[in-house]
Amino acid sequence: MAQRPMDADATEALLKLASKTVDDQLGREQKYPELIDFFNTDYSATYVAPADPHQQILRRKRAISLPDTLFEQYNLLECRCFMGLFPEIGRVWITIDHRLFLWNYADGGHYESYEELDQIIVNVALVKPKKDTFDDKVQYLLVIATPIEVHLLGVSVGSGSIPHTLYITNMSVPTDNVAIKSIVGTADGRIFMNGNDGRLWEIDYQAEEGWFSKKCSKREVIGSPLSYFIPTFLSKIRVDPIVKVVLDESRQTMYGLTENSNIEVINLTGAVQARSTVKAGYILQEAKRKSNHSRAMDENSFKVVDIHTIPTTESKDVSLLAITSTGCRLYFGQKGALDYNSQRNLDQSSSGPYLLHVRIPPAFNNAPEAVLGPQGQYRIHQSLYSNGVFLAAHSLHDAADALIAAAPESGPINKASTASKTMGSTYIPRLSEIAMIAGLDGKIWGMSEIPGVNHAGAIDPSIARNELAVQLSRSSREYLVLTNSGIQVFAKRRPIDTLQQLLLDARSSEADLLVFFSQYGRVESCAMCIAIICGHPALSPVVAGTQYMTSHSTSGPIAALAERLLLQWGGKRNPAEKPANNISSNLAGSELGRPVSQSTVGQYTYRHTALSLYLARLLRPIWKRKVLKVTNTIRGLVDSEIADFVLTAVQKDLYSLRAFLTSNIELFTPQPIVSSNPPGEKDQIEIENANAETKSLKAQLLLLTQCIEGIAFVLFLVDSKMSETVSNIPAESQQALLGITYETLLTTSKGHDLCRELVTAVINKQMGHHMSVDAVSDTLQRICGSFCNPGDVIFYKATEHLRQSKSSTDPADIEDHARESLRLFKKVPFLLVDEAHGPNKLQGVCKEYMDLKFFPGAVELALSCAQDLDPSNKAAGYVKDGMNSKDIRLEQYQQRVICYDNTAAVLKELGLDSAQGPLSSFAFHTLETALQFDDSLFHTYLYDWLLSHGRADYLLEISTPFIEEYLKQCTLLESTRDLLWRYYIKVDDFGHAAQELGRIADSTRYQLSFESRLEYLSLAVSNAKSYPAGSDPKTDNGRLLIELEEKLEVGNIQLNIILSLKAMAEDARRRSEIVSLDPTTRQFENHRAQQLEGLYQSCKAQLLDIDNLYHTYVEPLKMYDCMLALYHASDIDDEYHVRAAWEGFISSVFAVAEEEGRSPLVDIEVRVRDLGRRFYPSAKVTPISTMVQTLERYPYLKQTARYPVSPGWAVRILHDIGFPYEALFDSFHSLIETKNNVWVGPRASLVLIQDIEFLLRVWLAETQGTGVIAELNDELGISEDEWQVYGGGRGGAASMAAANGLGFSGAGLLDRYRTKKLDDAIQVYIRLLESASWTPTPISSPLDENLGGSQQELPAKARSLVQRLQAIRSRIQRL
Q: From CA 918, how far away is CA 932, in angstroms rounded?
């Protein structure tokens, strides 16, 4: 099996290290101070003014004179001439009376003209049009103002030598003889203007006229909506007119500078704009206070001549810059920015803005008077501010101006701020600027920055002020200065431009280079050297004498000198080099390369850190950017988020860097450390540093290659219909791809895997078009080999075999190709089952196999992948340990599930998800293939799948080492509790089946009715009996049978208890609803019903043991029949409790029968006979002495004597239960002999002897036949009716019938021994009756006072009983 590259983890670790390095470098560049950070003092005036022209902030690039043709037009001037700059379209606008000329200053000679107006043009502006108002060709609007009207013209920008085109829009608004002073427009097409009347207007325009709106109209910005309809001549002229307006679109704010130096602030977000004013008095007062009453803030010469907005992209806190006539810069912002120095006594509205800082102009003490002016005082009349760069026009005299320029000194600022943060010290930024002044020929009419050409896309606004960070992202910034003689182009020098010049200039000394390295720090300087060596395309051509040399060659003298500096100044940092008092002059440089702590462990050389910095800057245009963007949501079209030219530019820069490193790798490789033996602490630190730097270098080289190939791969996708390719990967992968950045794509396994999916999609697209994949594969391996590894090649070959199998018509060929593809696919499971998006490839291959009817192959592939991807079976351990979502083994588990899902899909295709019908041969063979895999986790998955599709019957047919354990787990669920015992029965394991059935019956896990529990117990007993040794109590299964039978017996008793509880609860509930009962009784019955219902529910919930049943239910509720049953089941030997239970049972039967109006003694006879038969012949629950005494006396008790009973009532019941006559005779006779205190006296003896006589007669009838009774009656001369009446019976006929119907079970033959015993007993009874005295005597027992009859009846009964006994004795003697 092909494995993942052995160094995959190491590669990912290196890429992670390189990625962190890039992030750290880019993050440090964000540490450049915010503009507000410099305003920690009220004013500042720190400048550096280099005397060397090669180091000045601006260099004069070229001068362009006005063409002669325009001078000829100027000679025709009658009234007025105006001019200005439109750098957006590469034009200078010039008006000569009513004519407008747009001069192409780039070529110096061509221009467009517009001469359709008949009024003098006083102002022109270029603005963006509103969307969907004009034709798409109209890219700008020219706003042309005359004293009478303002006209709008469309502008289509030509390219190269193609001139611009002007379009008549027929849109204009009247100005009412107001000269327009300034016009500004927003990006969304709004146009604002102000005139010499000081009023501020907005021009509204639309494509068509409306019902109540014109195609083009104007309205006053500050005022009510009625200003639409108020004529201008009725409006009041402003006392302090606005002379200039500027827009801050980032804050939706417009500022207006008035003639008296007030600044008006207009909020443009509402329908009616809010307005506030920064008063000139406040500005002067605060400026004087903050500048310590500087001479430049003299109130006699104070005047604000210009204002500029500072957008939020440049500063969140500083919003406005005002320029005074003396050259002071006044920075304004909101009140929240004034945390360092609260302002007091401000005559200012709460909304601001507030004066934050005063920047005093540079002095230029050494400047000649011809440049500075005779008075030494600036007279600024125009200015420009753009992203930190400040230009101002200083009036020398009426015919000439000087240009003042200032910009932040980026080297010391960047170096000091980052170094201080690294060392943990508190750093307060100081604003230091490089400044210069240069004389010009003529007066300045306008200044503007030329839109720059970014080398690799747009620059991140958050670092735009950090010149060192962006100097290679764009060409040198250039500025146009328009004078009355033409245009002068100035280019701002970047630090790298200065270094280039120093390297080219033969006059440059080592000291000059040392100053440069000191100014910008070693890391930044070394990074610039690397850029020069690599010939970065953003470098500017540098003039050296009269010779121009481009910097795009790495073999020129500049590259050699830069390499020498890199070697000389890029070595390891000297620990003894401490920060100087003036941190800006510290050569140690920025934090880049400085260790985090004061220790030198983990310290890199300057050139290595510079390499990291340079690489990070090359990658910045793409690093945090997304790879793709959606271009059409409906059609699902995507494209590269980054333009092709940007990707190509970045790739070329990376190529150049890699070429340099490849040929100069020894320059960055740490030298071997010569250490003592053993190495000391310092040597050990040096070794650790060298190892760390070597590893970092390796990581950066790897990242460099990865980025080059990654960009090549993206460009390849762009060229090969990216949308089609992306649409062929899974939806979730598409979503991931839309959100992924280049950083993630190039440095993480997630990105690498997405690239692999895209490679597969490209290959699949080729195969879908029936084209060979070799060409595409070769191309991908050539341009991005890391995205197309050997495993991919195996995968593509397997895919090719699969395609040939599908296209073949020969069955043998189909099978051969399919099996070969299976063999190859099994070598690359990691390509089939991707960690993030696994099911797609494996699912597709399995689907192809199913289409080929190669079902076993599909199952074999899926399950082989599962085992190969997790050879240690970590997934099983993950499941066993609880499947924690944070467990690192989750990945292996998810991969296995992917494989199992595909196996299930195959089985489903074969119909195994259907609960009906037998298996086909295909299905059977495929299932057998799956079951052969020794994969416990898969078997669990498969069994779950079969159960979920209603195929439990299949489980009972499966014979694997895993099925029994699985079925044990199934018993935890209600729906599958029966599978295990059914399986045991299926395999003839009746003992385990019995155990499982018994467990289910006992378990409270399942929602079973009590009857169902008894059924499970019954089945358990049956299975226990079926086991060969089940009936042997010496074996485990024999003991199990005994235990189950006892449980079943107790269970049946519990069922009776449950039924009794239910009946009792229903009776109590019925009684609680009887209206005739008093409320207290009904409430009591209701409460009792609730208690009984609770007992009923708890009792039927589970099987209970004897103790629980007795103490919880039976004993408290006096369930005597159940009590006796429990005594019987527990084999208790306690005559006292048994007697009490029988007495209680009989009393309860009596009470119920009496309450319900039935004959109690009849109910007792039936119930006692039935209950006794259940327990007989148990001498412990049905002891004969107890039964005889209890039943014999019960009819004659005081409370029961009113119910008549025939002789032999107790005898009949006991004999029906099963007691033999001989045992009954002995028990009754013992009552006579022992003279029990209950049976004392002649009355009691008479009753006992009557029942004994009955017992003897039925015994004789049983042994000698029923004719004996008739013979005896005949011998005594007594008819049958008379005998019955004498026998005491108002129920005599029924009793006689019962006697005649007695069974003969338990009867003994009257042998000589028995007859002798009976004869002796009868003699005792006769003597006892004959000697009895029947005079009234008190009864001292619980028996009835009339026991045996009335006083008059007793003697006759006794004589009759004696005769009968004598007849029986005579009969016995004849036996």
A: 21
Number of domains in the chain: 3
43-44 and 354-359 beta bridge pairing: parallel
Please enumerate in sequence order all residues whose Cβ is within 8 A of that of 283, keeping only pairs 6 or more positions apart, or say none. 261, 263, 304, 322, 330, 355
Residue where one domain finishes, among candidates 570, 599, 617: 617
Sheet holding 180-185, edge to edge: 180-185, 191-195, 200-205, 216-220
- Within 8 A by CB and 6+ apart from 1339, the residues are 1241, 1243, 1345, 1347
CA 972 vs. chain centroid, Å, equals: 31
Q: What angle do CA 458, 459, 461 make, to 5 degrees?
A: 125
Output the pTM of the full model. Answer: 0.61
How many Å is the Cα radius of gyration of the chain?
A: 57
| Chain center to CA of 452 | 44
Question: What CA–CA distance (Å, rounded) separates 328 from 283?
Answer: 12
Tokens of 174: 């009247």
Structure tokens at 333: 């912002």
Residue 753 located in a structural domain: no
Write out the residue range of the structural domain in which residue 595 sits.
Answer: 15-32+462-617
CB atoms within 10 A of CB 822: 22
> Which residue numbers in the chain have pLDDT < 50?
2-6, 223-230, 234, 236, 339-350, 422-424, 543-555, 574-601, 836-839, 1030-1031, 1283, 1285-1307
Q: Do the domain assignments include residue 1037? A: no
Give the end of a domain, one of 919, 938, 970: 970
Tokens found for residue 73: 């037009």
Backbone φ and ψ for 612, nearest 5 degrees, come out as -60, -45
Rounded Cα gap, residues 868 and 1089, in angstroms: 67
CB distance 438 to 60 below 8 Å: yes
Which H or E run contains 943?
Answer: helix 936-948
Question: What amino acid occupies position 892?
Answer: Q
Distance between CA atoms of residues 280 and 355, nearest Å: 11
* 265: Cβ contacts below 8 Å, ≥ 6 apart: 253, 254, 255, 275, 276, 277, 278, 351, 352, 353
769 Cβ contact list (under 8 Å, min separation 6): none
Q: Provide long-range contacts, Cβ within 8 A and 24+ apart, for 694-699.
A: 694/669, 694/670, 695/14, 695/17, 696/17, 696/18, 696/21, 696/604, 696/608, 696/612, 697/608, 697/611, 697/668, 697/669, 698/14, 699/14, 699/15, 699/17, 699/18, 699/21
Distance between CA atoms of residues 166 and 559, nearest Å: 49
* Residue 133 φ then ψ, to 5°: -100, -35
> 3-state secondary structure string, 8-20?
HHHHHHHHHHHHH
Per-residue confidence (pLDDT) for residue 350, from 0 to 100: 44
Q: Could you give the residue ranges of the DSSP H alpha helices within 112-259?
A: none
The pLDDT of residue 1032: 54
C-alpha closest to that of 689 among 768, 802, 606 = 606
1238 located within any domain: yes
pLDDT at 373: 63
| Alpha carbon distance 1367, 1269 (integer Å) | 10
Question: Residue 529 is encoded by which pair of tokens?
Answer: 């050297």
Number of other residues whose CB lies within 10 A of the CB of residue 78: 9
CA angle 503, 509, 512 (to 5 degrees): 80
Q: What is the CATH number of the domain that holds 885?
A: 1.25.40
Q: How far apart are CA 1359 and CA 1142, in angstroms?
A: 35
Closest CA to 608 of 564, 559, 551, 567: 567
1123 in a domain, yes or no? Answer: no
Residue owning tokens 């003039």: 543
